[in-house]
Structures are given as structure tokens and as C-alpha cells.
Amino acid sequence: MEPMDISKTFDPTQIEKKWYAYWMERHYFVPAEETDIKPFTILIPPPNVTGILHMGHVLNNTLQDVIVRYYRMLGKPTLWLPGVDHAGIATQNMVEKQLADQGLDRHILGRDKLVELIWQWKHEKGDRIIEQLKQLGCSCDWSRQRFTMDEMLSRAVKEVFVSLYEEGLIYKGKYIINWCPRCVTALANDEVEHDDEDGKLWHIRYPEVDGEGHVVVATTRPETVLGDTAVAVNPRDERYRHLIGKDLHLPLTGRRIPVVSDDYVDMGFGTGCVKVTPAHDPNDFEIGRRHDLPQLLVMDEHGIMNATAGHEFEGMERYACRRKVVEMLAAQDLLEKVETHKHSVGHCYRCDTVIEPYLSDQWFVAMKPLGERAIEVVESGEVKFYPERWTKVYMHWMHNIRDWCISRQIWWGHRIPAYYCLACDHMIVAKKMPHTCPRCQGSSFRQDEDVLDTWFSSWLWPFSTMGWPDETEDLKRFLPTDVLITAPEIIYLWVARMIMSTLKFRGVIPFHTVLLHGTVRDEIGRKMSKSLGNSPDPIDIIESVGADALRFSMVFSTPKGADVFYSDAMLETGRNFANKIWNAYRFIMMNAEQVAGLPAKDKLVMELADRWIYSRLQQVISESREHYEALRLNDAGQCLFQFIWDEFCSWYIELAKDRLYQSDDAGKRLTVKYILLDVMQTAMRLLHPIMPFITEEIWQSVKMLFPMPEESLIIAAYPEADSSLIDLAIADEMALVQESITAIRNLRKQVNLSPASEIEITIKVSDDRQNRLFQQYHAYLNKLARVNQAYVGTTLSKPPQSIGAVVRNVEFYMHLSGLVDIVAEKERLGKQMEKLTKELTAIQNKLANDNFVQHAKAEVVDKERAKLAEVNTKANLLRQQMENLG
RNA sequence: GGGUGAUUAGCUCAGUUGGUUAGAGCGCUACGUUGACAUCGUAGAGGUCACUGGUUCGAGUCCAGUAUCUCCCA
User: Fold this and answer.
1) Which of A105, A516, A793, A795 is deepest in the core (most CB within 10 A)?
2) Strands ordered across the beta sheet of A427-429
3) A802 near A816, Cβ under 8 Å?
4) How confident is the model at residue A818 (pLDDT cuts 50, 70, 90)?
């Protein structure tokens, strides 16, 4: 390759397509067969089939890909198992919306036709998000891609349902659900939108049966009085204790209802008496259960009052009924008062109708028996959460676990495998439609109309995707998997349930580690959402700055599971970094043309900077390994960013230039060329998990010049640190040089000397080692601080007309040529003196404090003393300089 | 209402078992086209660590309370 053909800025589009195709052709993402090495496995949280890639997916899948690629490089057979979720309600809604545009609705179409339409849609457009994940660089094993409605997964769903039913852990019962009377359908919790509204609070009198008194209850929905079956008070409430167990007259109905005691009642709210309507309020439903109260449904599925409400109200719309109830109460002097009241009201997300809590037949899973083992495995540490604090959230939910309502009144999903005999209504739960009714010998059946909650297929993901209930090779090999990476919002919905199901049906944990990451927000902290329009399209970003830049920015900005604040500035971090790497590569290639016969590593003529960069490289290798393994991906990113940008580019490459351009020693030139290629190549491997495309591109191209086997692949190994190359003495010397260069640059700045002007420096060192160091490497000062002439010695003193700085115990004096602004300089020094004095006082006070000297650890005290000496030296120098200025 | 977490520079965040002059990136200011990179370089300014009390020789760090906010569940 002609080096000058390499473009000045990094152009990702071409190379991303090229290398993804290359990886696919070579089956990189398929775990190696025939090996005894324990594989590394990650299950994807399956995105919705309707989904298009958003920033949340980018974060989630980038983190997974980084980890998977890291373990692949460690030589493990690695499986990232991908798939898509059928997302019952969301998908059906989307297709129904399309129908609506054509003036159709599902009732006209019928169930079979609608389901057929959705499948058709899935085949045509459903897997768009999969293509987008590929653009992001995700290294999933696409040959194992699953869909929650696949035959394989449906089999598992039926198997589990039937098995839990037979064990008595699935049952049919009554439950309060959110019901939209206009759409005539049940709504999931997340389909109900809550708004705070100004409503009214009606205070109603319920007369006592024995005695003259009454209690007052407050309600926002007076029509539900008709369905009351009790009044509840708090057992500790002195005001009402005498009423517990007594009866009240329920207004307008002629019924008598008891007073019950329940902890749920808030003594401080309203009058402390609560009317209980078990069939029309979720909290009342729970109270009703505890006290075995009747559940009276007083309206029908359209929100029209029924016969149970009483003949005066039957047939009335719910709000008309509300008005009539209020009128009648007032007429009977049972209305104590009416207040305005702000409260939260649930609305149908589709039609905005006020939802009605509604009692209906539903299917449940009894969760308590499944929860016990799931608690144990987290307590014992078999399953760990990162960050750890989520363990508490998980435990809290598990200890208060409730039965899971798994039926949904929609059409898209796994239909409940329960069949009813048309002749005698006998119910049979079975994997297939039965032939004969065991009770009446009838032979015609209808299947339950409901489908299962989408999570009922997702919770089986760890083994349903691997072919269970068959004992497949994949099951034996890949379960338990290793790390699950997901958002904390679905700890309950998904993570906990997978732990329970996998323990129940496989007897093992599904994964040993759960990594929870934050939410992607916009610059002002809002969640990214379609409706706010604050979510950029990741594909646009990839097309403009590249997947690597996006990936790096995401990884870099997601510390310890905290939220990610997406902004253009944040994206620039990755874009600039990719460009920086690209230009370092470009520079190296420009100078690498003739590096044909490189010297063997042990024949290299290495000097300070060379030994230093190798030493640092080894440390960075170890650190990055530790970070990747501890799942601190942002730390891995930061550590590599800092090494490549600051240490390799800003220091090493800059120092290498002298030898490349000016040295007439061929051995020196060869050494530096070798090291540039070697460090670059190693750094590309370190960074490959985070930025796979650019690192592969550079790897492949450097490989042609660098002495390594032609077939060696970037993924073939994650570098291992060679501790023999770590040299702390060298590191210390280099640090001194670096600090010195910074100090000299500062001196320049202080007197406003242009960085281009050449200067003379007197360096007073305090020992021979330092003397040798500065004699030998004054070229470094020349290159990076434009020190034209350096006088080094142990006995030198401050030259006239100079300003000084101290680094450790080395004094630097920059020779001035009479260009200094005396007044400004004095002011600056005065300010510095003030700061030093303050610090000095603090240390002296500390050391004068007997308590400190006696109680603190010896090393802390020693450190304090050393500091005192250092600060004193600085102060003396400063004083001298101030005197010099007159 | 129950639970959980947070509060450090203009912004986003580090700060490991209490022990430097509380750090980084971005932004801002000044200067700079030094033969990879202006998507760059060098330097600078900027903080009562939310508030109140406590423990300690010593608190951003530990404890209690207050305030404000986040998220999950109801």
C-alpha cells in the first residue's frame, strides 16, 4: 500500500461493510466445535420484532459485543445467541393500526386472518433490527437466530404450561385488570397512561345498623358504592375500633355490609374509613381477598351498569350513573360534603378513554414455590448482580412475590393450551387439542381464546432457544450461560423469571452474572423516546461517524451502570478517537516503507522512551484485562484511550520523530520503526473488542509489514502482559522527564514566550543519576519543550535574569532575554506564594498536633514530613525569585 | 403509599478499606498551521464536595436527620 493513499480523516463506511462480510465468511461468530474448553455464552435480550434500533439497543448490544469479542479473543468457543421477541401487544397494535388506515379492523377480519397478516408482516419486514445490529458490528451467531413464536420455542411454552398446570402451579382465577370499555379489551399495566386530574372527592354517610350513628367514607367514583361489600378501618384506629364486626347500611341498595379491619387503610387519609369494592378496584380486591368478601360486578364490559347495580341504575352509562347516585345520596341527606381532589387517572393509551378496573377470569402462575430456589442462588452468590445494589431490588421483589397473571385478551401470541368440551364445558389442558372428552365422550372442543403474556415465552429463553425439551447438544454445552446484560427495569419482568424457570425446568441457574446498565438520556436528562423526538437514529450516526465511534462513545460514557447522557459532544469523543488512531496509523505507515528486515526483538537498540512505552504497554495489557473481566468496560475504554492518545501518540510518537527524521544511525531508526509497529499492533488487539472495524483494518494492513505469520488474525489472541518488561525505575525516570517538560512549558507560558522560540535552561540536579539522565536525554527536552541549550550539573546556581521551577528535587531556570513584564510577574509570584503559605501552614499545624503524630499511621506522618520539605524548597525558590525581581 | 438510588467545576461524571493542594472529559479563555491528526497541540481560569448535626487526631468518604430529584412497584 502506498502510505500517502491513506486518507487524512478516517472514513468508516467502506471498511465496516468489508470486514463484517469477512468475519461472516470465515464464521468467526460461530462457536468452535470439538474443543474441551468451556465456552463463553451470552443470551441476547431479544428486541421486539416491531422494533427499530434505538440508542438503548446500541448501548445494550455494544456492551454485549465488547464482552463477547473479548472472550472470543481469549480463545474460548464463544456463543452470543441472538433472537427476536414477538411482543404480543405492541405487534398486534401496529398491524391493527395499518388495518385502520385501510378502514378495517380486526373484528371484520377475524382472528385467523389477523394472525396470518401479522406473520406476513413479520416475514417481510420483521427482522429489520437484526440487519441494524449487524451494522453496529454485533458478533452474534446468526445461524442460531431464534424467534419467540418459532416452532421450537412454542413447543417449550406448551410443555411448560402443561407441566405447571399438572403440578397445580397454573390455575384459573378472578383478577382485577385494567379494562378499556371502548376498546372492550384488557390493557397491560404499561398500556395505561396515568395523568393527574382535578376530580372530586365525595364524602358519603353509611348509617350504622345498630345505633344512630354513621361512618363517612370518601370516594372519587361514587357509582362504585353499588358494588361495595364492606367498609375497612385500620385496626389501630381508636375512633372506629368499636365498629369492627358491626354492620352498616349501604346506601341506595338496601344491603348490609360489615366493617372490617385492615392494615392497608391509611388512618390519616380522609376520614380513615374506606369503602371496599372488590370487583372494581385493585386495592379493594386485595382487601376483599383477605377478608373473604363477595365480589360484585356492577357494570358490564362496555361500562354500562348491570342488574346487580339495581334496577334503578341498570342500563345506565357509568358517568350518568355517577350523577344519579350523587343526586340520590344528596336527596337522602347521605352526602356529607364534596371536595375538589387531584388524583391520578388511568387512560387507555390508544383511545384515551378512562380505564375501569374490572374483575375477570384470568390464568395465573403460583410464583411462591418457584421463588424459593431463586432466592437461594442469589443469596449464595451463584448468581451475582452488577452493580451489586440491584441484588437488594431483586430480593425485595422475590420476598414479596405475587402470583403472575399470564393471560392476555389479544390474538397475537401463544394461545393458551386449554380446551373446553363443546358438549359439557369440561376443561382439558394439553399440548394438542384432545380427541375425546373424558367426562362426556364428546369430540368437539374450543380452545381458550386468550393468549399468554409475552413474558411467558421470554422467561424460557435460556433453554427454549437451545431446543428444550429435547436434550440437545447445545443445552449440554451452553447452559448455564455466563453473563446477562440488560436494563434494570426488567429485573422483575424478565431476569427473575428466567432464574426461576431455568432452575425449575433444568435444575441449573441460567447465568452466573447479571450486568445492569443505565438508560440512555438526552442532554437534559430526558429518557429518549419517539414521542419526544429526542432520539437520534443510530443508523444515521453509524453512517456519518462509523460504528466504532458510536460504540466507543457509548462504552466510554457508561460508568458503573449509570445512565448515559447522549449528546453530540459525547459522540465526538469516539469520532475524534477513531480519527486519532487513524492518523497515528497513517504516520506509522508513512515511515514504515522500508521496514523489511526488522531486527529481532532482543537486538533492538532501545532507549528510555522505548523501554518506557513497553513497560507501560504491559501495564495497560493487565489493566485492560482486569477491567474487561470485572465488566468495567468504561474503565477499559478509558484506560486504552489514555494510553493510545496521551502516552503513545503525544509522548512516544513525538519523541520517536527525532530518531526517524534526524538520526543517521540505522539501528536506531529500525528500532523505533519496529516499536511503532509493534505497539500499534498490540494496541489494536487491546481495543478490538470495543472498536472492531478500525482495529481490524489497521491490523490487516500493518500485518503486511510487521514480522508475524501471514495468517495471524487479530482475534486469535488477546495480548498477555510480559512482566519482565515492566520497569519501575524506567517509569520513574520517564515521569521525571515528562514532569520537567511540563514545568518548562509552564515557565514559557508564565512569561508569555512563544512555544516556537528556542530557549536555554539551567538544570540543577541533585545526584549523578539525574545528571546522567538529563545529559543523555536532553534531546527529549529539545523536541518537546524547544530547549536549545541545557546546562546540567549538581553544583550550578541560579543564573541572573531567569525564572525557575522545581520538579521533585531538580531546579530548572529558564534564561530570559529581558522580555519579562516585571509587574505582572511579581503579581503572579505573589499569588503563588499565598497558596504555598497556606499549604505550609496546614502541614505545619498538622505536624504540630500531637494527636495526629501519635494516632496516625507512621507512613502517613512520614509522608507529611516529606511534603513539608518539598513545599519549603518551593517556597524558598519562590522567595528568591521575588527578590530577584526587586 | 412501599422500596431504591442520587446530590462533587458551566455540563457529564471519577474519587477504591477515612490520610496530598478534591481529579478527568467536554465546554470556556489565551496562544500556536513545530514535516500523522485544527476531528490537532500547549497552557490557564473555574469547586463552601446539597444542608444540619455527630463519630474521629483527621470526613467528599462513616452515622443520624433535613431538603431536592431519579427509578421501580402499588
Assistant:
1) A516
2) A427-429, A418-421, A445-447
3) yes
4) low
CA distance A565 to A203: 47
Question: Cβ of residue A472 near strand B, that is under 7 Å?
Answer: no
Say yes or no: Cβ of A523 under 7 A from any atom of strand B.
yes
pLDDT given for residue A823 in this prediction:
63
Maximum mean pLDDT: which of A103-107, A260-264, A470-474: A470-474
Instruction: Assign residue A85 a region (left: φ > 0; alpha: ψ between -120 and 50; beta: otherwise).
Output: beta
Strand B atom within 7 Å of A344 CB: yes
Cell 370516594: give the residue: A219
Nearest Cα to Cα of residue A490 among A379, A599, A397? A397
C-alpha–C-alpha distance, residues A393 and A389, integer Å: 7
**What residue type is A750 in one-letter code?**
Q
CA dist., res. A847 & res. A851, Å (int): 9
Given this model, what pLDDT does residue A664 score? 75
Q: Which residues contact A556 (CB under 8 A, 6 or more apart)?
A: A573, A574, A634, A637, A638, A641
Q: Could you tell me the distance in Å between the CA of residue A471 and the C1' of nucleotide B24?
A: 52
Q: A843-846 contacts: CB < 8 A, separation 24 or more? A: A843/A867, A843/A868, A843/A871, A844/A868
Q: Would you say the C-beta of A266 is within 7 Å of strand B?
A: yes
The distance between the two most distant Cα atoms of chain A, rounded to a whole number of Å, is: 116
Which A residues 106-135 have CB within 7 Å of strand B? none
| CA–C1' A512–B62 (A) | 32
Single out the residue of A276, A302, A301 nearest to residue A221, CA to CA: A276
Helix or strand holding residue A792 (H, E): strand A787-793
CB-based contacts of A568: which residues, under 8 Å, 6+ apart? none
β-sheet bridge partners, residue A790: A761
Chain A 550-609 residues in 7 Å CB range of strand B: 557, 559-560, 562-563, 565, 569, 572-573, 575-576, 578-580, 583-584, 586-587, 590
The CB density around residue A422, as the number of other CB atoms within 10 Å, is 14
Task: Give all strands of the β-sheet with A185-187 in edge-to-edge order.
Answer: A185-187, A170-180, A356-365, A404-405
Measured CA A833 to C1' B47 distance, in angstroms: 21
Average pLDDT value for residue range A823-834: 67
**Look-up: residue for cell 367498609?**
A231
